[in-house]
Amino acid sequence: MSGKPKLHYFNGRGRMESIRWLLAAAGVEFEECFLETKDDLTKLQKDGSLLFQQVPMVEIDGMKMVQSRAISNYIATKYNLYGKDLKERALIDMYVEAVIDLNELLMTHTFQPADKKEQHFATIVDKATNRYFPVFEKVLKDHGQDFLVGNRLSRADVQLLETLLMAEECKPDILVKFPLLQSFKARISNIPTIKKFLQPGSQRKPPLQEKDVPKLMKIFH
User: Are 60 and 144 contained in the same domain?
Assistant: First the structure.
């Protein structure tokens, strides 16, 4: 049995991608077991591997962990990406929850029906540029430090970078009014473990394409 965490999910981003990002940022090598068919999912469900009958599932430290937030919390704590005390952790949690809200919008864009896509895109841009990004821009301005919390890398930095890059895939100039976020993106992207994850050939997944949706539907529905 390998000591590497083993990730069970489809071969795409979804709710596993933030977990991949955290492991990569921590410099932890991991294996992936991709669900290709409905039978692959059913097998995990029937053998008791999935506590709530759903993925993502990560085998780590002798556990079969489910629920993406619980998995991310565990990884962040284990690899010192969760602040130095309770107050820092509370800040990190607040920032991460906001990032997750925006991430969910970005992640579900591909699944929108054709007649809803334009409105959904407008919602993404509005919430990113008027609700979320101004807050993070102000945080960076107010404390004048390189990282969001405690002047050291935390899961908040990692997950914000992931979402900034996704937002730019959606609208390349979306950060134009946020110079500190642009600097933050460049700075965090240059951390050696993260820089490696951003290189071609890494385990980072590309954006979901519309052609991929029917295959996913066959696995999960």
Answer: no
